[in-house]
Amino acid sequence: MLGVLVSRSQQCTEENMVVRKEWSSLSAQERVAYSDAVTCLQNLPSRLDNTLYPGATNRHADFVAAHINYTFIIHQDAIFLPWHRAFVYLFETALQEECGYNGSQPYWDWPAYAGPNGTLAKSKIFDGSYDSMGSNGKGNNSCVYKGPFSQSNITTFRSFPHSLITDNIMNNGSGTIPTWSFDYEPRCLQRALNDEAFRLNNNYSCINTLLAQPTIGEFENYLSTPEGDPHFGPHGGGHAAMGGNGEDLFISPTDPVFFLHHAQVDRMWTIWQSYDPDNRRYALNGTQTLQNVPPSPELTLDDQLTFGPLSANRTTRELMDVTAGPFCYRYE
Q1: Which residues of 224-260 are buried (b: 16+ CB within 10 A; e: fewer)?
Q2: What is the CATH number of the domain that holds 60?
Q3: Which residues contact 6 (CB under 8 A, 6 or more apart)?
Q4: Which of 36, 64, 151, 311 has the fewest CB atoms below 10 angstroms from its CB?
Q5: What distance lies between CA 55 and its chain's CA centroid?
Q6: Which residues pair with 331 in a beta bridge?
Q7: How far apart are CA 234 and CA 256, in angstroms?
Q8: Model confidence over 124-163: pLDDT tens digits?
Q9: Number of domains in the chain
Q10: What is the Cα–Cα distance from 300 to 288, expressed in whole angstroms?
Q11: What gap in Å lies between CA 272 and CA 213, rounded to an integer?
């Protein structure tokens, strides 16, 4: 079995609910336990067919491969939020079940780090200390050089030019990925922290604006603004803030901070849903391809979402509530 979305419990209650916490609220020991579990996943063998995915040389790379494979259907559309909710859950579960991690998936509370005097490179996430998520990049290759994930050859897939996205949109493209997408190309983990983009897109004012959006369509549009908009939105701003591999739409899960970032994306959606659960818990808006290119049907609650070899398919409906379906968690 290559992985399944399964419930942690037959019934989700306050007593058995997993609590996800903000990175800086964890103790040093808890932060190290998380980064050690991610390193463990990077050292476990891949479960994918190496003839089809030669770059997937470890278990962590399996998640990157899945993200590459579905990039054109899991961004800037209605699938984005439920698919990434499940993706983070699958990663969290792999850390727990395959690497003995006893904690939960932490999140990156963007505005707490995005003040006018904030510097990401000095934050608890990126300062390169033993209990961080590794340092900023350095040198011509922007290689993470200090702390966790600073060892060489941590990434196994090549970078994707952003023009693949823009060309696909402009040319009403097929939404297919290049033939070289899964080639093996080992190198360091790359980062280029961008404080300016982070302060512009992820401050408290932006978050308040995001959570004040009246409909799911407006929430999605503010969270991830369309291609060509100079305002990235909080989702795009977080990726731009990471820079390097984290800014590459296709291979962004290469940077383990991706999962802290997307836990925060999920947290924002969960909070927004909680403001009017009767009308928002199962609210959908949009189609099933990136900016509806090529044109695709509107997503429904009964449509099947695929995760490839990471998990069995799930209906959209099963992924809309963090205390139902396969999920049982909340955010602190």
Answers
A1: bbebeeeebbbbbbbbbbbbbbbbbbbbbbbbbbbbb
A2: 1.10.1280.10
A3: 326
A4: 151
A5: 20
A6: 20
A7: 18
A8: 999 999 999 999 999 989 999 999 999 877 889 999 998 8
A9: 1
A10: 10
A11: 8
Residue 208: give the domain boundaries. 18-331
Q: What does R_g of the chain's alpha carbons equal in angstroms?
A: 18
Give 116-154 as a DSSP string.
Answer: TT--GGGSTTTS--TTSS---EETTTTEE-SSTT-SSS-
**N-term to C-term CA, the chain:** 32
Spatial distance between the Cα atoms of 94 and 37, rounded to a whole number of angstroms: 9
Q: Tell whether 183 is covered by a domain.
A: yes
95 secondary structure, DSSP code: H
Residue 6 domain flag: no
Predicted model pTM: 0.95
CA distances for 199 relative to 106, 132, 136, 208, angstroms: 21, 21, 17, 14
Amino acid occupying residue 327: F
Assess if residue 5 is contained within a domain. Answer: no
CA–CA distances in Å: residue 68 to residues 196, 204, 252: 27, 31, 9
Nearest to 28 by CA among 126, 129, 104: 129
Q: How confident is the model at residue 116 (pLDDT cuts 50, 70, 90)?
A: confident
Q: Nearest 5 degrees, angle CA 63-CA 65-CA 70? A: 100
Region of 76 please: left (phi>0), alpha (psi -120 to 50) or beta. Answer: left
